[in-house]
């Protein structure tokens, strides 16, 4: 009985990691952009566009790697568009992000339908056109060990082994983001631009250039997130397949106070909620009784609002965010 | 990365650290800098003094690469330079300590100092190298700061020290300090001066921009006076006196315009008692207004003089109900406004007080609104009498046209957007609005800032006329001329406190100038 | 930036150029997928206005956008970016539905409708006030909170419509149909009473309510004290405090009005057509409202014109989908995104170019000096 529960729990952890991966990548993207002072609502749209690009290219060329490259390029292009509107033209950053999201919804299906004529989705991808789960060595042996096998061994064989490379890259991205932001010169300047651009300007560095670089980095990460959805986790592009994940990533970023490790934890928490939502349907929990799927799925949004209201902790965004930098004297 | 001590000493052979010839800078219709010639001797502490609006900030911005001069030449250590950007200025060895610090509040001291000049990609290595260099700078200049403290925890004086260190770390041989003591306590000011003397000894040339005579006399070797965008005097500090400088700063003896005539003051209508306003958390709180007391009578003009930033703005906000006092009280009629019982702007209005704010652009007007709309700001309920809650454009236009005629606003077009009127006419709109409410007390901040001569005279006449009708007027102004023209009594503010209230008969430019500048 | 351009350029020419830019880009994309953009444009226009019943459909869609556009515009006047129109419309519809379902066995249909309409407004207003309050009193960024509230509303709808509000014996997430007559009459029916005949379309009385709302919003913003203070708050909170008002109060009131207007959108779909509450009846129209408000420069007349344009787009888009093999209704979303991009984020991109052309036109017409 306990072993069964344990296994269920471990499987849920496994699912958590798979659900969290796109969130983690998008949230790291958001961190780069917003830490430099540019609000980015368009994580959702960029992810959708890259998912489409990845699946289409994988279907057309047969190579998942080309799909990934295409996804990244697409996302970077739209990031540059966002940057162009916000940095060079000092346009409204929220409007620009919104525009990209809506444009993404329309553009993906329009082009998808034109190319593949399948109602906007790409054809189902075969195994070689996707990124496949990587089985780590010795999983079977470890699982079959007495005592250790069913308890800790399953963590190795189910949770850690069996993920595709993009999952590993996502966790790597967290480490890289933290390193870049807090241990490199580039990161110091980027954070300064988001807090007090005047300080960077009077040090002789271009604020605009820094922001463009941040936005490009965000594009790369979003591209990876999109590719994960359509050619690693899933087997093709389906319209609106991002289903709000970009917004949840946004929420996670705010929840984690724009710091990589807390944001990672927030992503994992939200991913966990998504993973157990379906599993808990019809299940009687002690004390609470039956919980509806919708209630669990809405928790990330509700929790974010509670955080924003300042009732539990405080979300402190970069000081200079959302304000186009104008040299004033 | 940084210019070494040896190189700095080597430049001693060049007589002038900075030379300006014929520098011009115009913004639209305003000539901010005109025909500027200036020589700053190497290794000198050189002061530039002048009133608000004299053009000092523009000049300094040109030296730091923010603006480019329209004409003229700039030479740094004998070489002519074009300073197109801050990077150029830094490369030329010019460092600047801004009036409003350019520090990232959430960063540590070390992070702020190396920002932009890290020297390497890896922060850890950059920090290491910087620590070594900064230790040397600390011993050489006596600038000891805890490198790992977070800036926003520092008091202002220490933050400034970081700014200086930052400039030196970037290799500055010439240090420009823009109004450095405005935010410092007297002790912090003394500490700053010790640092400046130490810097001078090590061969750093210092340019000190200030309006405070005391500082000029305390620390500079040479001083240049700016007025109206031009350089009007260059003196050796040892050859001059504060009085002489004050007179050159202000420009001309007191005008006797004939606008003023004897007042007929009545009852006391407002009493301020030990007014205090503190801001900030207890550890770093600053007293913005400190122990101010005065009594205001009906039918008199009380002028509040002082260079901007010495508490007058805050005093006005206290009187207008925009801020609540931290201590002390304001008594208006039967109402005591205290920290426990603050008043709102609408309550203040209902007590018969009108307020012409200091900054008409951000507060007094709504720039995108038409004149007819702006002229009812704060008084909308008076305009919707006819039909409840309804704003009739014809009624608004009529009302505005009438006021525009009474107050000579040009062009008398109620449908013109507020931001398209000239400064003088904008101010007249605000005055028309507040004065036509027939207040018993009128608070006026910077009545004629940015206003042309013709409008100035008109506005002054209007103020005297209000006074004659029995209105009590508090007039805050950084223009000494204005204070002397209009006031019956004058209170001078410095560093948040009142330096005393003197009667018109005892006031003259020199005396007040000295009080304003913190001397005496 | 000194806008030395005359008003007609700022209000008339530039927005038109922005829309043209959006359409040109769309045309390029259409060409890339192998269709003739001009043929597509012709089908779009014919499908929106000239085919049987088309005009009715166009105006029907436009009605939705007028409500959501007005909602966004009112908030914009106070410098608030209300992205939550979608959620506010949903909750408004919920309120409407609840009233109808509770009262229709008890009261005559006309009375039910008359009570249901304010219910939609109040429920929508409520959904707007919460983010408004959070912004005013707790400093929570209204953009983020309204986005969150959209999702929360959607979840709420699913939970209720698949749960306790679901019509008994049904499998799909929707309520039972309202009693007969609990509806807003459709034009073609109304008009037939007077002996005229118009093609069938879902255009209904909500359209009239929408027009009234346009007038109402205009009066509110430009003719009342409240509207004055709302606009003042949008320009300068400092000036408003100086004038004796509370920006926090104004923000909350504005969001209530904004949410209420969005709630009215539910009338068109639920009372005008469906006569029951179905899932996702808002279909993204809340976001279209943002495009409409941006294009219409937050003025009811502009919003009316922009709503017509988008109504034509949606209806014409359906025709495009029907007649062209390679085009789907998502094409409309694409154009919508492009319009938001050019009219919103890049609104002044063409200004320097236009200014130069204008300046050279002026100097050449004055002769060489």
Describe this structure as you would to a colleague.
- The complex is a heterotrimer of chains A (329), B (520) and C (369).
- Chain A contains 13 helices and two strands, in the order H-H-H-H-H-H-H-H-H-H-H-H-E-E-H.
- Chain A has a domain at 21-243.
- With 329 residues, chain A is mainly α.
- Chain B has 520 residues and is α/β, with parallel strands linked by helices.
- Chain B has three domains: 5-250, Rossmann fold, CATH 3.40.50.300; 253-352 and 441-520, P-loop containing nucleotide triphosphate hydrolases (Rossmann fold), CATH 3.40.50; 369-438, no CATH class.
- In chain B, helix 9 (242-250) packs across helix 19 and helix 16 (423-435) runs parallel beside helix 17 (453-468).
- Chain B starts with a helix and ends with a helix.
- The model of chain B is unreliable at 1-10 (pLDDT under 50).
- Chain C is an all-alpha fold.
- Chain C has a domain at 54-299.
- Classes of the chains: A mainly alpha (329), B alpha/beta (520), C mainly alpha (369).
- Chains A and C meet through helix 3, helix 4, helix 11 and helix 13 of A and helix 6, helix 12 and helix 14 of C.
How would you classify the helix and strand content of chain A by structural class?
Answer: mainly alpha
Helices and strands of chain C, in order, run as HHHHHHHHHHHHHHH
Biggest beta-sheet profile of chain A? 2 strands, antiparallel
Q: Structural class per helix/strand content of chain C? A: mainly alpha
Strand count, sense and barrel status of the largest sheet of chain C are:
none
Mean pLDDT of chain A: 88
Rg of chain C, alpha carbons: 22 Å
Shape of chain A: globular
Beta-strand percentage range of chain A: under 5%
Fraction in beta strands of chain C: under 5%
Quaternary structure annotation: heterotrimer
Kindly state the number of beta strands of chain A: 2
**Order of neighbouring strands in the sheet with most strands of chain A:** 1-2
Rg from Cα of chain A:
21 Å
Low-pLDDT residue intervals, each spanning 5 or more residues of chain A: none
What distance lies between the first and last C-alpha atoms of chain C, to the nearest angstrom? 27 Å
Name the chain pair with the biggest interface and residue counts per chain: A-C, 51 and 49 residues
């Amino acid at each position: 009985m306990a072993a069964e529960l344990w296994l269920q729990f471990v499987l849920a952890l496994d699912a958590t990691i798979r659900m969290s991966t796109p969130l983690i990548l998008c949230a790291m993207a958001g961190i780069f952009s917003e830490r430099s002072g540019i609000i980015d609502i368009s994580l959702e749209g960029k992810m959708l566009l890259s998912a489409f690009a990845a699946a289409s290219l994988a279907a057309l060329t047969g190579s998942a790697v080309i799909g990934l490259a295409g996804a990244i390029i697409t996302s970077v292009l739209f990031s540059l568009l966002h940057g162009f509107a916000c940095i060079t033209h000092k346009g409204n950053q929220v409007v620009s992000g919104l525009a990209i999201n809506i444009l993404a919804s329309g553009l993906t299906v329009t082009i998808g339908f034109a190319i593949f004529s399948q109602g906007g989705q790409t054809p189902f991808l075969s195994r070689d056109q996707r990124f496949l789960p990587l089985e780590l060595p010795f999983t079977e042996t470890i699982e079959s060990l007495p005592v250790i096998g069913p308890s800790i061994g399953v963590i190795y064989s189910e949770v850690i082994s069996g993920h595709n490379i993009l999952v590993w890259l996502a966790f790597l991205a967290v480490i890289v983001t933290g390193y870049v932001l807090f241990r490199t010169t580039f990161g110091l300047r980027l954070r300064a631009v988001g807090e007090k651009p005047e300080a960077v300007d009077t040090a002789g560095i271009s604020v605009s250039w820094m922001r463009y670089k941040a936005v490009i980095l965000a594009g790369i990460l979003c591209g990876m997130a999109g590719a994960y959805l359509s050619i690693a986790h899933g087997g093709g592009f389906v319209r609106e397949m991002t289903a709000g994940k970009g917004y949840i990533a946004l929420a996670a970023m705010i929840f984690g106070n724009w710091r990589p490790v807390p944001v990672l934890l927030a992503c994992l928490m939200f991913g966990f909620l998504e993973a157990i939502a379906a599993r808990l349907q019809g299940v009687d929990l002690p004390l609470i009784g039956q919980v509806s799927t919708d209630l669990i799925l809405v928790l990330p949004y509700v929790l974010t609002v509670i955080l924003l209201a300042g009732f539990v902790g405080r979300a402190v965004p970069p000081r200079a965010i959302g304000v186009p930098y104008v040299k004033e004297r | 990365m940084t210019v070494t001590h040896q190189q700095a000493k080597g430049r001693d052979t060049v007589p002038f650290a900075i030379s300006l010839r014929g520098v011009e800078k115009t913004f639209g219709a305003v000539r901010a800098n005109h025909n500027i010639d200036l020589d700053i001797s190497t290794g000198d502490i050189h002061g530039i003094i002048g009133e608000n609006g004299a053009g000092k900030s523009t000049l300094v911005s040109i030296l730091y690469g923010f603006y480019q001069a329209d004409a003229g030449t700039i030479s740094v250590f004998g070489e002519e330079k074009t300073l197109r950007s801050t990077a150029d200025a830094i490369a030329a060895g010019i460092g600047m300590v801004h009036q409003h610090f350019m520090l990232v509040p959430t960063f540590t001291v070390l992070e702020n100092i190396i920002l932009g000049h890290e020297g390497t990609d890896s922060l850890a290595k950059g920090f290491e190298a910087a620590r070594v260099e900064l230790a040397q700078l600390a011993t050489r200049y006596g600038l000891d700061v805890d490198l790992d403290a977070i800036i926003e925890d520092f008091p202002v004086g220490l933050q400034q020290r970081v700014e200086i260190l930052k400039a030196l770390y970037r290799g500055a041989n010439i240090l420009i300090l823009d109004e450095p003591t405005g935010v410092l306590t007297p002790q912090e000011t003394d500490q700053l001066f010790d640092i400046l003397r130490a810097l001078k000894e090590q061969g750093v040339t210092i340019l000190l921009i200030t309006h405070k005579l005391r500082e000029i006399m305390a620390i500079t070797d040479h001083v240049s006076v700016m007025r109206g965008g031009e350089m009007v005097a260059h003196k050796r500090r040892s050859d001059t006196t504060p009085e002489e400088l004050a007179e050159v700063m202000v420009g001309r003896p007191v005008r006797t315009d004939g606008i003023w005539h004897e007042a007929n003051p009545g009852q006391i209508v407002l009493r301020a008692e030990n007014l205090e306003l503190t801001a900030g958390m207890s550890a770093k709180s600053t007293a913005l207004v400190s122990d101010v007391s005065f009594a205001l009578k009906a039918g008199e003009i009380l002028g509040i003089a002082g260079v901007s930033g010495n508490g007058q703005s805050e005093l006005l906000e206290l009187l207008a109900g925009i801020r609540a006092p931290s201590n002390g009280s304001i008594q208006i009629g039967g109402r005591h406004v205290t920290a426990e019982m603050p008043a709102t702007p609408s309550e203040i209005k209902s007590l018969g007080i009108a307020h012409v704010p200091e900054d008409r652009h951000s507060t007094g007007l709504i720039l995108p609104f038409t004149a007819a709309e702006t002229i009812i700001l704060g008084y909308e309920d008076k305009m919707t009498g006819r039909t409840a809650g309804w704003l009739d454009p014809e009624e608004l236009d009529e009302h505005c046209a009438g006021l525009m005629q009474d107050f000579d606003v040009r062009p008398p077009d109620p449908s013109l957007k507020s931001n398209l009127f000239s400064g003088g006419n904008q101010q007249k709109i605000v005055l028309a609005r507040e004065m036509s409410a027939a207040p018993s007390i009128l608070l006026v901040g910077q009545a004629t800032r940015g206003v042309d001569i013709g409008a100035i005279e008109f506005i002054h006449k209007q103020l005297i006329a209000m006074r004659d009708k029995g209105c009590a007027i508090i007039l805050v102004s950084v223009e000494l001329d204005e204070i002397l023209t209009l006031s019956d009594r004058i209170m001078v503010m410095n560093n948040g406190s009142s330096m005393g209230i003197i009667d018109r008969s005892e006031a003259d430019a020199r005396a007040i100038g000295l009080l304003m500048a913190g001397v005496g | 930036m000194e806008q030395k351009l005359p008003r007609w350029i700022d209000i008339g020419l530039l927005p038109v150029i922005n829309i043209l830019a959006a359409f040109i880009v769309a045309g390029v994309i259409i060409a890339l997928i192998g269709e003739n953009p001009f043929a597509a444009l012709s089908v779009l226009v014919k499908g929106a206005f000239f085919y049987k019943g088309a005009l009715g459909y166009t105006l029907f869609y436009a009605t939705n956008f007028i409500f959501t556009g007005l909602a966004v515009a009112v908030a914009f006047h106070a410098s608030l970016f209300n992205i939550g129109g979608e959620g506010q419309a949903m909750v408004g519809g919920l309120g409407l539905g609840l009233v109808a379902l509770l009262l229709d066995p008890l009261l005559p249909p006309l009375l039910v409708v008359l009570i249901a309409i304010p219910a939609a407004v109040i429920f929508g207003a409520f959904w707007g006030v919460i983010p408004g309050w959070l912004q005013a009193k707790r400093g929570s960024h209204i953009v983020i909170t309204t986005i969150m509230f959209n999702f929360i509303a959607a979840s709420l709808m699913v939970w209720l419509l698949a749960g306790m509000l679901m019509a008994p014996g049904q499998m799909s997430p929707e309520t039972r149909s309202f009693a007969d007559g609990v509806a807003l009459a459709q034009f073609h029916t109304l008009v037939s009473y007077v002996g005229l005949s118009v093609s069938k379309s879902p255009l209904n009385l909500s359209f009239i309510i929408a027009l009234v709302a346009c007038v109402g919003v205009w009066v509110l913003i430009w003719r009342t004290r409240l509207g004055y203070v709302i606009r003042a708050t949008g320009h300068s909170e400092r000036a408003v405090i100086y004038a004796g008002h509370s920006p926090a109060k104004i923000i909350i009131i504005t969001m209530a009005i904004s949410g209420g207007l969005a709630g009215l959108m539910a009338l068109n779909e639920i009372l005008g057509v469906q006569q029951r509450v179905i899932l996702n009846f808002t279909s993204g129209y809340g976001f279209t409202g943002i495009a409409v408000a941006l294009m219409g420069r937050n003025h009811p007349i502009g919003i009316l014109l922009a709503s017509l344009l988008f109504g034509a787009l949606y209806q014409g888009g359906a025709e495009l989908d029907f007649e062209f093999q390679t085009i789907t209704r998502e094409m409309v979303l694409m154009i919508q995104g492009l319009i938001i991009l050019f009219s919103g984020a890049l609104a002044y991109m063409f200004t320097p170019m236009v200014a130069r052309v204008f300046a050279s036109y002026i100097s050449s017409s004055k002769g060489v000096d």
